Structure formats: C-alpha cells, structure tokens
Amino acid sequence: MIETRHGQKTFTETALPEEWRDWRWQYKNRIRSFKDLSPLLDMSPEDVRDGQRAASVYPLSITPYYLSLIDRADAQDPIRRQCIPDAREIDFSLGGENDPLAEHEQMPVPGLVHRYADRCLILATQICTVYCRHCNRKRLWKQKSPGIGNASYFQPMIDYIARSPQIREVILSGGDPLTLPEETLDRILGSLRAIDHVKVLRIGSRVPVVLPMRITPELCSMLKRHRPLWLNTQFNHPREITPEAAAACDRLLTAGIPVSNQSVLLKGVNDNVDTMRDLLCGLQEIAVRPYYLFQCDPVKGTDHFRTDIWRGMEIMEKLWSDLSGLCLPRYVLDVPGTRGKIPLQPFSLQPASSCPKQ
After folding, report:
1. DSSP per-residue letters across 237-264
2. Among 10, 165, 278, 332, which is disulfide-ready with 341 (CB 3.0 to 4.6 Å)?
3. Stated pTM of the model
C-alpha cells in the first residue's frame, strides 16, 4: 500500500511501493472507464452520467500517479479539469474544428506534418498515457490506424525526410512517443540521425508530468546516444511539479537532454497571475525552460478551456514586470499554414478595446 498526499488530503492506492514506482504498472493500470474512476473521486450520479457521455466520444485514460494529484473533493480542481471528461466537450454549439491547424492538409506522406521548410513533425503514435481534455489532436483518439508504430509505418516518412534536404529538424510527437517500446524509439531516432541533413531531433511528450517514472536511467541512456536531442513537455499547473516530476526532468538533464516547457493557457487551470507565476518560477527551479505559453487552439469540444486573448496578454504583462527573463515564455497563437506561431506581446499603452478577441 502507498499513500499519496495532496495538501491535507490523503488517499490510498492499492499498490505496493515498488509497483507504484514501476512505469509499466502505472501504464497497465490506467483508469479507462467511469466504472473504475467513480469510486476514486467524489462524483455525483450526474457527474458520472455526463462524464460517460463525453467519454463515449473522447475516451478516458489517466495514470494512477496523475490521478493521485487531484483534490478529489474539489469538482473544480485544476488537475481534474485537465483529465476528467466533461459534458461540455460534446457541446459543439460553440463551434471549433477537429483539425484547427489543418495538419492533415500538410501531410506529404501519412503521419508526417510538414508545415515549415526546415522542420517536420512525425505523429509517432496515437496513444497517450493520459488523454488531456484540451488536446488539439482529440480527433485521433478513436481513429484506427493498423500498423501504426511499426517499421512499415515509419519508413515512408524516413524516405521523405531523406529526400528533403531543407529539413534540418525532426519532431516526434503523437500521441506520446515515449509510450513506444524503447527499441522502436531507438530505431526511429537512429534512422533520422543517419540522414546527413537532419541536425536536430526533438521529442514532444507529457510523460515527465503524467508518468514521470517512465523516464528511467535506461531510457535516458538510449536517448543520450541520439543527441543533439531536445525534449518539450507540458506542465500547466504548479501542483504538477512534484518531486517525482522534478526527478524525471533531472534524469533527462543529466543525460544532456535539454527540457523545455510548452504550457497551454487554460480557463480554470492557470488563467491567473498567481498560478502562472508559481508555475513559471517552479519550472525555473527545476531547470526546465519556460518556452511557449499557447493560446488554447479552437479545437471542437474545448471551448470551456479557452480564455480571451486580452486576458492572456494582461497576465503576461504583469509577469513581465516582476519576473526574471529566464522565467518568461513566449505567449503565442498557433495558426494554420506556414505563418505558424504568432507572438502575442503585451503592450502597456494598448487599450483593451483594440485587442483581438477569440
């Protein structure tokens, strides 16, 4: 048995300490249904009914570790909001798009997104350890892609990159690439590293936040062989910066793999100055660089997470006035096509009425 604390609250996970620390146990025991979830949280019958409806459209997956960070008595807990299905996800009356960045239109071969001349992105898998409810690729969660993750799936992408000399950087994303078997990930990275014009590799993964025990010494040793390799993760709330998450980031850093953070501005999670300040300072303290703060994409079923752009600029302006530059991310709006990430800079003299709305 192991106890996990949030504030003054304690709840017990039915796992031996060595099981709890084993990422394979965590992955195998992900919570995938409300039948398993409802006994672990304080949920009304209405909460369960509405959550089940949302999960029938956008599936549920939460690691026991990440679930343990929730204040189970707080229905508005910021960790809970990020991972528990909500009926508002299937209220499509407010619009949104399945693919707001038009990634599918920019796939020269299946699974490879080429938006910018000098870099491309590989959708290495559709699997995540935790399905984040604000995800901009929710459209992929229930798609069936036979063969995804095997050599025949990746080879056309490797071939395309090899014959595209303008590509100097390749990003592995998904899903979460760190759910792949290490030998598969090693093979992909090795194939990319063998291409002369590919100079930099990058992995996008939320594993350090939601399954930090996956960052093992063995994984870090393998990743180290493919440097220069960068890892971008996503901490969205200061309570996610736990000793376990800090240790996972430290293992990556010790292996010579820089770790950067790409937060999303989320209503009810981090859309206030104090929370964002604590998050950014906490990241600096564990040597994780705050890289981007994204305006939440207009993905279908995520409208309840989106804040007004002016609100984000107001938060950033206040942070600029009293935080070190090392703590400050770039606040950006991602748009389709090659325009990419548009900086949203705070301007002290700009009236709120002139700021664009979203």
Report:
1. SGGG--HHHHHHHHHHHHTT--EEEEEE
2. 332
3. 0.92
pLDDT tens readout for residues 59-78: 999 999 999 999 988 889 99
Separation between Cα atoms, residue 51 and residue 320, nearest integer Å:
38
340-349: list long-range contacts, CB under 8 Å, 24+ apart: 340/115, 340/116, 341/292, 344/295, 344/309, 344/312, 344/313, 344/316, 345/313, 345/316, 346/313, 346/314, 346/316, 346/317, 346/320, 347/313, 347/317, 348/317
Rounded CA separation 236/270 (Å): 7
Q: Alpha helices of the chain — where are they, by DSSP H?
A: 17-20, 23-28, 34-37, 45-57, 64-67, 78-83, 151-162, 182-193, 207-210, 217-224, 243-254, 273-285, 309-322
Q: Where are the domains of the chain?
A: 2-90, 109-354
What's the pLDDT tens digit per position in 224-274? 999 999 999 999 999 999 999 999 999 999 999 999 999 999 999 999 999
Q: In the chain, what's the furthest Cα-to-Cα distance?
A: 58
Cβ-based neighbours of 261, under 8 Å, separated by 6 or more: 232, 233, 234, 235, 283, 288, 289, 290, 291, 292, 329
DSSP state of 57: H
Q: Which residues are catalytic?
A: 115-116, 119, 128, 132, 135, 137, 297, 334, 341
Look up the CATH architecture of domain 109-354. Alpha-Beta Barrel (3.20)
